[in-house]
Specification:
heterodimer, A: alpha+beta, Immunoglobulin-like, four-stranded antiparallel β-sheet, three-stranded antiparallel β-sheet, about 30% strand, B: alpha/beta, Purple Acid Phosphatase, chain A, domain 2, 5'-nucleotidase,  domain 2, six-stranded mixed β-sheet
Chain lengths: ~160, ~575
């Protein structure tokens, strides 16, 4: 276990950590300020609506996009979800959760030359399909995975 | 007439099947023959496998299930075969000692004939015998070892840790071990086990950075062959058991990272790669189809005593998948013949540990006596006598669980009771006393709180649907293992083949339909939430001890079972 890394991070407050990353050149301030809040997309209540707001229309399936996450969530409040794209010129990645009140959980705009590999934590109230939407070379692609949220107990 | 030992065993089996009384003769006759445990050596790499002993240091009875349904692709496939269907599939003679070990058939009578099973002193003798005939053999422990008895609970697993060191366990992974809390697990693994037992788990990582908490695998040389053992802990530990025991550790199946470790082990020169798994057998079979380069997955968790491996074809060739039962009842022996850097052939035996056929090991027996001494009086307190057979295993209910449900409803003045579908818990024969030790064999957990909760009809339905999906989801990666929650008072209909949300219908209480918005008094135990822990609640064993002392004689219980739909003809049902 890399205890040094853990100690360094423990020593800073959240703001301090952020500053560290910026100072280390991991995040540029420009990126940190983000590309802007896509209000209609984040407020969409249905899949078609969300895709339309993102300008995605009817995305195609792709073997080059991978979505990762637990099969059963350990804690619905913080479910780790990751998306990797092997498609050339991947410029945008979004994570959508079908059964959440607002479907779009996260979106990432990738500057040219960035490795298309993102991960975050999402909140899920119930078992749902989770979609990874990718824009590459001007076209949209989408894959999905079911993540189960359970009451727990009774195992073994 | 002279018979060789194999023929003698066959005669024994045939005689028993024909209804001839063997009774006490069996032990004398078979131990004279001594053949059951004579396995000729095969190949050059041997792995001995025990799993899910649930801290049973003493010989016990353990009844296998009469309901173990497989749904979808799993229907009729091992381990989802019970009784005669299992015997037929594996060519086991009805009425034989093997038939008693692997099935519930004629359980009470056969248990008297063949005696108890397991016990660490007996297991030790068998392990020593196998190691003597198989130089260099490793003993692998699939976990659920430190939990399941009063003694293990009171010593926080120390009894089992000491017993496993003396037994000569080489490599281990875990599940219920984690319910002693992360700190206690680390204390044992870094302290007691250091330099003696490797605790491996590729799928336990820190929640913050995803760092490995334990080594993912070890490579051990055996007769010149490097053998890799990769650990796979129970993937749903923080869901099936309380999250607060391991708040900083994340689990999961993680078959992608398993593939990376398989490749890494091969790159380091491993010629044999096995996974020591606590996934459960259906998950192991699916995992074997997705991961390349694994020679065998030695599995546990689902407590399936499966006499022969399931062979799964995959992109890298084939993988053997085994499951070695529970409660110290079996020892798996896997022999590989490794030629030219790879496995060329194998033999597998799942040996039942018949306590009457094996001399107990003196050192282990004396360690057990010493460890039990301070607690003997407490363990031996006689609470009641049972008139019927008491057991737990089965998808929907067991007679010991029914007894617990009856006790919960009575002592909590509840209309309905829930009891978790645990698969551990030993069996008692008609006429046996129920001691405190027997009660703790069913209840010894670190979150034993009993609860009384007002629940709406709608919420009760949600609970039943949720647990049922954990058992019958057609994709094993979405199952948690364990059996259906046991239900007292409430009647229902269940279609395991339906989709989640539609499996449970016709819920009623005392002949009246359950109303969605009405509130019912529901008793239970083993809550996983931290709020329930903080609220306290009388431990289940105290409540049940009060109940049993009062009842004194337990009449044969009537099982409350759901009316099943959609599973007629399923070979996973008697």
């Amino acid at each position: 276990m890399n205890t040094q890394r853990r100690e360094v991070l423990k020593s800073g407050s959240a703001a301090g950590l952020f500053g560290l990353l910026v100072a280390a050149g991991l995040i540029t301030t420009q990126q940190a300020q983000a590309a802007g809040w896509d209000k209609p997309a984040f407020e969409a209540k249905a899949m078609d609506e969300a895709l339309k707001a993102l300008g995605a229309g009817k995305p195609a399936d792709s073997k080059d996009v991978q979505i990762s996450g637990p099969d059963i969530a350990e804690n619905g409040a913080v479910v780790p979800v990751g998306v990797k794209s092997a498609l050339a010129d991947t410029e945008f990645i979004a994570i959508l959760i079908e059964k959440n009140p607002s479907m779009l959980a996260a979106s990432f705009t990738l500057p040219a030359g960035t490795m298309a590999d993102v991960s975050t934590r999402v909140k899920m109230g119930q078992t749902s399909n989770v979609f990874a939407l990718v824009k590459a070379g001007g076209s949209f692609y989408m894959v999905s995975k079911e993540i189960k949220v359970t009451l727990g107990g009774c195992g073994g | 007439m002279s018979m060789n030992r194999r023929e003698f065993m066959q005669v024994l089996a045939a005689a028993s099947a024909g209804g001839m009384a063997l009774h006490g003769n069996f032990a004398q006759a078979a131990s004279a023959a001594g053949q059951m445990y004579e396995l000729p050596r095969f190949g050059n790499v041997s792995l001995l496998h025990m799993t899910d002993c649930h801290a049973q240091l003493m010989p016990i009875h353990f009844r296998e299930p009469d309901v173990n349904l497989g749904i979808g692709d799993m229907m009729g496939r091992p381990p989802h075969l019970v009784g005669e269907k299992l015997l037929k599939q594996f060519g086991i003679a009805p009425g034989s000692a093997q038939a008693h070990a692997f099935t519930y058939l004629d359980f009470s009578q056969a248990a008297k004939t063949y005696g108890k099973v397991g016990g660490f002193a007996h297991l030790t003798t068998l392990v020593k015998r196998m190691k003597a005939s198989r130089p260099g053999a490793l003993l692998l422990d699939g976990g659920d070892t430190w939990q399941g008895s009063g003694l293990s609970l009171w010593t926080k697993g120390q009894d089992m840790v000491d017993a496993c060191k003396l037994l000569g366990v080489d490599v281990m992974t875990g599940h219920w071990e984690f319910t002693y809390g992360a700190e206690r697990v680390k204390q044992i693994v870094d302290g007691d086990f250091a330099g003696k037992i490797d605790f491996v788990a590729q799928n336990v990582k820190t929640t913050d950075f995803g760092d490995q908490v334990f080594p993912p695998f070890v490579i051990k040389p055996m007769n010149g062959v490097p053998v890799a053992i990769i650990g796979q802990a129970f993937p749903y530990t923080p869901i099936a058991n309380p999250r607060y025991f391991t708040p900083d550790w994340s689990f999961g199946i993680n078959d992608e990272s398993l593939q990376e470790h398989v490749d890494a082990a091969r790159a380091k020169g491993a010629q044999v790669v096995v996974v020591l798994s606590h996934n459960g057998m259906d998950v192991d079979i699916k995992m074997a189809s997705r991961v390349r380069g694994v020679d065998a997955i030695l599995g546990g968790h689902t407590h399936d005593g499966v006499p022969a491996p399931v062979i799964v074809k995959n992109g890298g060739g084939q993988t053997l998948v085994t499951n070695a039962g529970s409660n110290g009842k079996f020892l798996g022996v896997l022999d590989f013949d490794v030629k030219g850097g790879k496995v060329s052939d194998f033999r597998y035996h799942l040996l039942p540990v018949f306590s009457n056929l094996i001399q107990p090991d003196a050192d282990m027996a004396s360690l057990i006596t010493k460890m039990r001494a301070p607690y003997e009086a407490k363990l031996n307190e006689k609470l009641a006598v049972t008139e019927g057979l008491l057991y737990r295993r089965g998808n929907f209910n067991g007679s010991f669980d029914q007894l617990i449900l009856d006790g919960l409803m009575k002592m909590k003045d509840a209309e309905i009771a829930f009891s978790p579908g645990f698969r551990w818990g030993t069996s008692l024969l008609p006429g046996d006393p129920i001691t405190m030790e027997n009660l703790l064999d069913q209840t010894a957990i670190t979150y034993p709180y009993t609860t009384l909760t007002p629940m709406t009809g709608e919420f009760i339905k949600t609970v039943l649907e949720d647990v049922c999906d954990n058992l019958f989801n057609p994709d094993p990666y979405y199952q948690q293992g364990g059996d259906m929650v046991r239900v007292g008072g409430l009647q229902y209909r269940c279609d395991p083949t339906a989709r989640m949300g539609s499996r449970i219908t016709a819920m009623s209480l005392g002949g009246k339909p359950i109303e969605a918005s009405k509130t019912y008094r529901v008793a239970g135990w083993a809550p996983v939430s931290e709020e329930a822990k903080n609220a306290g609640g009388e431990p289940i064993w105290d409540l049940m001890a009060r109940y049993l002392r009062d009842v004194k004689t337990v009449k044969p219980v009537k099982l409350n079972l759901p009316e099943l739909q959609g599973v007629a003809g399923n070979p996973g049902m008697a």
